[in-house]
Design brief:
alpha/beta
Length: 398
């Protein structure tokens, strides 16, 4: 089940369990199974004695470390050895513990007794953030500006469902379509459960599946015929498949090829993505000019965002591409924006407030920038669109 990283020349295990309680270590090692090549240690010092420097590793820390002293030890390890992905198991979960664990460099926190499926999922997810799993995906260009004559590709991404990513993508695309003097295309790349058409109250006759099936003979005219137009704004939409099963027919290379064609005929290409970083999303991120990374004011969102940002760093994605968006930024949840920035290690570039106008507009199928243009949400998205339109105009004049 686990994508075991190829580190056999560096260590004879790919997952480590660390806790003073031998029974806990043995139980967890059994749950992890032989394929995980798990080893157990009574202390961090014992682990370090066996682990050569630079070895990527997932370490599951037991309840012994679920206090201030234990988290300090984890923090020392993760700061000294960033190639280690830490998971903490705690008998009690609280907001304070989750905050402290994130600050200590912990990637995930699980409740004890540990559910085997949750443990397997957590280990697999953290393994995928390690450099030995993905490795470098090629040199990235120093400049993130599109080539002359090409449109700008904006990918809206998040590693946690429910952050409002699709609302932001659709409203930003509509705002850009109203402000730009060139065509704007919105691509729904959530191939299984895309909601862009629902958000815009559209009934598409064609979807991305049609574009993929015709990719060998696709030209601007044929591609144009596959769009669904959003009449109130003039936005062109390339909708997600109507059935989740169709997603299996679409590859990352095909999606990249379609987006490359779209940027030849549009001023902006906005891509909405699923709440994960799979091969298709990572491929689109690499060819995009801007990554609009959405997170929320809750611990699960911040935790997953930190993991996602770690993956982007490991893949050498230029941070100059990144625009970090904090949605529902005015929520009263005992978290401050500065605290989110410190935990993620990035600056928040755009604050979008919480507003009842958003669910009301979603239920109507009318973007909030059209339905409630004076709301704080609409103004924040309009300002974000203005930044991209202004930058594009300056680039074209240069």
């Amino acid at each position: 089940m686990y994508p075991v990283p190829p580190i056999t020349e560096q260590a004879d295990f790919s997952v480590a369990v660390v806790d003073a309680d031998q029974r806990f270590r043995t139980s967890l090692a059994v749950q992890l199974g032989e394929r995980a090549r798990a080893a157990s240690f009574a202390s961090i010092e014992a682990l370090e004695d066996r682990l050569p420097p630079g070895t990527p590793l997932v370490v599951v820390f037991g309840p012994t470390f679920a206090d201030a002293r234990g988290l300090d030890e984890i923090s020392r390890l993760t700061r000294a050895r960033p190639e280690i992905g830490a998971i903490l198991v705690s008998p009690q979960l609280s907001t304070d513990l989750l905050q402290q664990a994130l600050r200590a460099g912990v990637r995930d926190v699980l409740a004890a007794p540990v559910d085997p499926i949750q443990l397997a999922t957590a280990v697999e997810r953290v393994l995928q953030t390690l450099p030995s799993v993905y490795g470098p995906r090629g040199e990235q260009p120093a400049s993130t500006e599109p080539a002359e004559g090409q449109g700008r590709v904006l990918i809206v991404s998040s590693t946690k469902g429910g952050t409002g990513k699709t609302v932001i993508a659709t409203n930003l695309a509509v705002a850009l379509a109203r402000k730009s003097d060139r065509p704007v295309v919105l691509v729904d790349a959530d191939l299984q459960f895309g909601d862009v058409a629902v958000m815009l109250k559209l009934a598409p006759e064609h979807t991305i599946v049609d574009a993929v099936n015709a990719v060998d003979r696709l030209d601007p005219a044929l591609l144009q015929s596959l769009f669904t137009k959003h009449d109130p704004s003039g936005l062109q939409v390339l909708a997600a498949p109507l059935e989740p099963a169709f997603a299996d027919q679409i590859s990352a290379a095909q999606m990249v090829e379609i987006v490359s064609m779209l940027r030849q005929q549009a001023g902006f290409v906005v891509i909405d993505t699923p709440a994960r970083l799979d091969d298709i999303v990572l491929g689109l991120i690499e060819v995009s000019d801007d990554i609009l990374y959405v997170t929320g004011m809750d611990i699960p969102s911040i935790k997953n965002s930190k993991i996602g940002l770690g993956i982007l760093r490991l893949l050498s994605i230029p941070l100059s591409k990144l625009t970090t968006i904090l949605n529902r930024a005015n929520s009263k949840v005992r978290l401050e924006v500065g605290e989110v920035e410190r935990t993620l290690g990035v600056r928040i570039d755009c604050l979008i407030p919480s507003d009842v106008a958003v669910p009301q507009s979603v239920n109507k199928g009318v973007p909030v920038v059209l339905d409630s243009p004076r709301s704080g949400v609409a103004r924040a998205i309009d300002q974000l669109a203005d930044q991209f339109v202004t930058a594009d105009a300056k680039r074209r004049k240069a």
